[in-house]
Amino acid sequence: MKLAKTDCGAKLQKLTASSIESMSEREQYAFILDVLLSIVETIPDHQSLEDLLEKLSIRLNKPLVRILEELLIESLKNYRALVPQRKTEGSLLYPSTRELILSAALEIFAEKGYHDTTVDDIAKRAGIAKGSVYRYFPSKEALFNELLESRIQILDNSIQQIIEENEKDVTKTIALCVENYLAFFENNRGLYQLLFREKSLAERQQYLKRAFRRLLPVRKKILEATRRGFYKPISFEFIFYGFMGFIHGIIQRWIEHGCSYSLTDEAPTVLEVLFYGTVMSENRKNLHLKEEDSNGQGSN
Fold first, then answer.
1. What phi and psi values does residue 87 have, to the nearest 5 degrees?
2. Which helix (H) or strand (E) holds 143?
3. Which of 7, 59, 105, 128 is the most buried (most CB within 10 A)?
């Protein structure tokens, strides 16, 4: 049997090594599928592929039809595990190949980082051939940029919908935006890591400027409420950037704790700090005097 590339023979030898016989059936088929996906584009013709499968059948002492059946089942399991099913009017809808690639890329980039991820890695995770990735994205960089843009656009759209649906209640709008922001990154934790680990400082600043522009309609409502004496006359831009740093600190802490608790459960505390600060209202007038008294005692 002739193979197109020299490393293909090594992979085939690995695939048919005696160690595979000691694996469980599920481990065997997962292993076979992984190796086949990595060499399928280098097999020169259908006959060579048939020869390879026949060789596997002899090696494992199993009918070829059984091997093919289990490989199909294993590939479907991988596909369904990658992207959750969604039900619509009793039917199961699966994502497009493009979306499947993007979802796989998000997982791999988050796990390995941009520089250590290859297109081969993404193709294997998606359960498709490497050439299929290039049909949708000309390069790894293009795929990475499209991944970030498509996911951030989802966040943009959800924030825009909140603003439009609650334009008369600015406090409710702010609360819903905070809750939505935390929920979004709880469901897309890998995306947050890409934004703030793989992107440069300048690119992260562009992301914050984009978020600032999203909230310009809210800024207008806040200015109107400030004129009525509802909010303190503090710069909206100052509050925005300071508060975004606070929220991102909350998210970083969540990630450092292994995402072991619900990030959205932090929303009430975040909103409490935003709207009311950390000092109880009845103590605010005496806060300055108490601090002076404490400092005076300490100096004696």
1. -100, 130
2. helix 140-165
3. 105
* Predicted local confidence at residue 42, as pLDDT: 58
CA distance 141 to 197: 15
Range of the domain at 268: 149-287
Name residue, tokens 């949708």: 136
Residue 144 belongs to some domain of the structure: no
Amino acid at 272: E
- Residue 87 in domain: no
Indicate whether 155 and 279 sit together in one domain.
Answer: yes
Residue 271, CA distances (Å) to 155, 247, 248, 265 in order: 19, 10, 14, 11
> Is 104 in the same domain as 193?
no
Q: How many domains does the chain have?
A: 3
Residues 184-217 have pLDDT tens digits of 989 888 888 888 777 777 788 888 888 888 888 8
Q: What are the tens digits of pLDDT across the range 270-289?
A: 888 888 775 555 555 554 44
Whether residues 37 and 98 share a domain: the answer is: no
What are the CA-CA distances from residue 162 to residues 5, 15, 265 (Å)?
A: 55, 53, 19
Partner residues linked to 93 by β-bridges: 86
In our burial notation (b when 16+ CB lie closer than 10 A, e otherwise), range 149-174 reads eebbeebeebbeebbeebeeebeebb
248 and 196 in contact (C-beta within 8 Å)?
Answer: yes
Structure tokens at 131: 């050439």
CATH code assigned at 231:
1.10.357.10
Do 247 and 161 have their domain in common? yes
Is the backbone of residue 229 left (phi > 0), alpha (psi -120 to 50) or beta?
Answer: left
Do 165 and 130 share a structural domain? no
Q: Is residue 294 part of a domain?
A: no
Domain assignment of residue 240, yes or no: yes
CA 287 to chain centroid: 43
